[in-house]
C-alpha cells in the first residue's frame, strides 16, 4: 500500500517537535503541501529547504481563537484548500498528583492539548465541509486510555482528544469528513531524551513496560499517520488507533 497526497494540503500543529516534523516529512514524501504550525517560530525556520514552496511555516498559539483562525486563513490564502489537519501540539505539565496539581498547570494542559485541537478543527472544518472531503487526526496518547501516576492533566487532555475525534467523525461523516485519534506509546523523541538524559537510560526505564520490549520510533508513528490520511484508510473513522507496542493490552 502507498499513500499519494499529490495536491493535498496538510496542516500540522506542534510541527517543530520530532513527531510533528516526522509526520510532515512523510507527507512531503507523498507529494503533499504542508503547513507547519508551532508556537516557536525559530524552531520552524530550519525545517525543510527554505526554497521549498510546498512548505508554509506559521507561528501560532493554538490556544488562541484568533491566532488559530488566522493560521487557517493563511493556509487557504496560500493554497486555496485544506485536506488534512493533524492536531499534534501538546504540553506536558509537571508530574504532580491530582490533589497537588496547580490550576495553572491544569488549564495549560487543557487549553493547549485539547482546546487547541478543537479550535484548529473548528476553523479547518469549514473548507473541508465546502469541499466535501477531509481528514482530522488528533495525536492523543496511550495515556488517554490508561492512567499513569503524575500524568492526570496530560492523560485527561489526551482522553478528551480521543472523544473529540469521535464527535467530529459522527457530526461530519455525512459531509465526507473522517476523524480519528492516533495514540502513540513512548517514542524515542527529544522530549524523552531530555527527561532521561540519553537513549539507553530511556530504554532501560521504559522498554520493559512494553510487550514488544522496546520504544517506538518517530517514523513508525509518522507512517501510521500517513496511512490514516490516505484512500486505503477510507473506512476508518471515529476510532482510536493505538501504536503503543502493546502497552494498553496488558
UniProtKB/TrEMBL annotation:
Report TM segments: none
Please indicate if the UniProt record lists Oxidoreductase as a keyword: yes
Do you know which InterPro entries this protein is assigned to? Answer: NAD(P)-bd_dom_sf (IPR036291), Sc_DH/Rdtase_CS (IPR020904), SDR_DHRS6-like (IPR051122), SDR_fam (IPR002347)
Question: GO: which molecular function terms?
Answer: oxidoreductase activity
* Keyword check for Oxidoreductase: yes
Report keywords, A-Z: Oxidoreductase
Record's family?
A: Belongs to the short-chain dehydrogenases/reductases (SDR) family.
Q: What is this protein called?
A: Short-chain dehydrogenase
Organism the protein comes from:
Bordetella genomosp. 12
Amino acid at each position: 500500500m502507498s499513500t499519494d497526497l499529490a495536491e493535498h494540503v496538510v496542516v500540522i500543529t506542534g510541527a517543530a517537535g520530532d513527531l510533528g516534523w516526522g509526520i510532515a516529512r512523510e507527507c512531503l514524501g507523498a507529494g503533499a503541501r504542508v503547513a507547519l504550525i508551532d508556537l516557536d517560530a525559530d524552531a520552524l525556520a530550519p525545517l525543510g529547504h527554505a526554497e521549498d514552496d510546498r512548505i508554509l511555516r506559521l507561528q501560532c498559539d493554538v490556544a488562541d481563537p484568533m491566532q488559530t483562525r488566522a493560521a487557517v486563513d493563511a493556509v487557504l490564502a496560500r493554497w486555496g484548500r485544506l485536506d488534512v489537519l493533524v492536531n499534534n501540539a501538546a504540553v506536558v505539565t509537571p508530574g504532580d498528583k491530582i490533589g497537588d496539581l496547580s490550576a495553572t498547570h491544569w488549564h495549560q494542559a487543557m487549553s493547549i492539548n485539547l482546546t487547541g485541537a478543537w479550535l484548529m478543527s473548528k476553523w479547518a472544518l469549514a473548507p473541508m465541509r465546502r469541499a466535501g472531503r477531509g481528514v482530522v487526526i488528533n495525536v492523543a496518547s496511550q495515556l488517554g486510555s490508561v492512567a499513569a501516576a503524575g500524568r492526570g492533566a496530560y492523560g485527561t487532555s489526551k482522553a478528551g482528544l480521543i472523544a473529540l475525534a469521535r464527535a467530529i467523525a459522527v457530526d461530519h461523516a455525512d459531509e465526507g469528513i473522517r476523524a480519528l485519534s492516533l495514540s502513540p506509546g513512548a517514542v524515542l523523541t527529544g522530549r524523552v531524551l531530555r527527561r532521561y538524559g540519553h537513549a539507553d537510560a530511556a530504554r532501560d526505564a521504559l522498554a520493559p513496560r512494553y510487550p514488544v520490549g522496546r520504544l517506538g520510533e518517530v517514523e513508525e508513528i509518522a507512517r501510521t499517520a500517513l496511512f490514516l490520511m490516505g484512500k486505503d484508510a477510507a473506512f476508518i473513522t471515529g476510532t482510536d488507533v493505538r501504536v503503543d507496542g502493546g502497552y494498553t493490552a496488558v
